[in-house]
Amino acid sequence: MSLNLLILDIKRLLGHGKAGVLALVAPLAALLVFAAIIVPLLAGSGSLAAPYAICNEDQSEPVELFINLLANSESLRDISTAYPVDDIMAGFDLLEQGKVSVVVHIGEDFYQRLLKGENAQVSLYAYPSHAFEQTMISLTLNHALAAVGQSQNLLEMTGQAAVAAGVAPAESARLVADGLDQAIRRHMERRSVLSRQGALSPTGDYLPVEYYLAALFSLGAALAMLPSLHLTAFDLQGPLCRRGALAGRRGRRFLIARLVSGGLLINLTLLLLLPAAVFIHELGVYWGRGVGLGWLALLLALPLISLTLSALGLCLGSLAKQPRLSLWYGFYAVLLMAVLSGALLSEGMLPPLISELGRWTPLKPSMSIIANTLFAFDPARYLRDISRLLLLLFVYCLAGGFLYSRKGAGR
User: Cα dist. 355→211, 297, 318, 387, 388 in Å?
Assistant: First the structure.
C-alpha cells in the first residue's frame, strides 16, 4: 500500500456523497446529546448520587436486610443516597421540598409475590425534571431485588433438603438466614469483585452514566463505518472493478488502503471521547478516579476498535449486490449489534444465548473498553475485550479479503 493510494482513498471516502459528512456529524450529535442530558446532571449536582426516599411497607426480613445494605453499601454511594421514611406521605413531603429526587414505595406483599413468581413491582414517583434519576434508581433497584428473590428461592430449597437429610429445623433456618445475608452482600458489593470502583449498571455491566456514554460513542463509531461500506460496494460494482484495478496485487493494495482509511474516519469519531473525558474530569465528579493506566489503554484500543469496525464494513460492502442497498446493510447490521450488545435493550431482557452472541460483535467489547478505561480500569477485563477484537479483526479481514478479491477478479 502506497501513501498516495491511502491519501486518494481518504479523499474519496470523505468526498463520496453525503455519507462522509454524516459520519463526521454523528459524533457531534452524540456530544450534543451528552452535553444536553448528562453534563447538566453532573454540573448541577456535583456528583452522581441521586437522593431518594424509600418507604418499605413489606417489612419482611430479606427486604429489610436488602434496604439496610442498600443504604449503607459503599459500592452504591456513587449512584444513590437512600433516606428511609415511615410512610409514603413522608416521602412525598421530602419530594415536594426538593430534598429527594425520587420516592420509592415497596408494597406490603412485595416479597411474597416475588417468592410466588408473581408480578412484584416497586413504585417510583418523581417530577418530570428528575426522570433521569428515576430511571437510574428504578433499573438498579429492580435488578437487585430480583436477585434477592432468586437467592431466597435457592436457599429455601437447600434448607428443605437439609431438613429432609436430618438437619434440625432451627439449624437449617439459621443456615438459610446466613446464606441470604451473604447472597445479598455479595450482590450489593459485586463491584469490588472487579475493582474498588468496578462495574454495575442498568444493563448489568456499567454504571448508568458509563452505559450512556459508552453506548453513544460506540454507536457513533459503528455508524462511521457506513461511508467505507458504501464506497466498497460502489467500487466492486463500478468502473474500477470493470477495468480490473481490484484484481491481484493491485486489489490487495486497494483493500488495505480502504481498511486503513475507513479506520481513520472511525477513529475521528472515537477521539471525541477525549475532550468529553477531560471535561467531566474537570467537574470533579465520578469520571477518572483511579484510572492511571486507563488513558494509555484507551489510546491503544481506539485504533483496534476502528480497524475492526472498518473490516466489518469491508465485509458488508463486499456482500452488497447493489451500492444503493449497501447503506441499508450497514444500518441493519449496526441496529442488530446494538440490540445484541445491550446498547438498546437491557441484557436481562435478552435470552442467555442472544446475550452471549452480543459479546462477539465489535460493539460489545468496544462499549466495555470505553467504560473500563475511562471510569475504573480493570486490566483483566481490558485484555479479554482486546482479545475478542483481535479475533474479530482477523476473521473480518479474512472474510472481507476473500469476498473483495473474488468480486474484484470476477469482472
Answer: 16, 26, 27, 18, 15
Would you say the pTM of this structure is higher than 0.85? Answer: no
> Hey, what domains does the chain have and what are their CATH numbers?
3-42+207-409 (no CATH), 49-194 (3.40.1710)
- Mean pLDDT per 10-residue segment, the chain (411 residues): 64 60 62 59 52 82 69 56 84 87 82 67 76 66 62 70 78 73 60 37 47 79 86 73 58 78 85 72 51 78 94 87 82 88 66 80 90 80 93 92 69 51
Asked whether the beta carbons of 6 and 265 are under 8 A apart, the reply is no
Q: Which residues contact 8 (CB under 8 A, 6 or more apart)?
A: 257
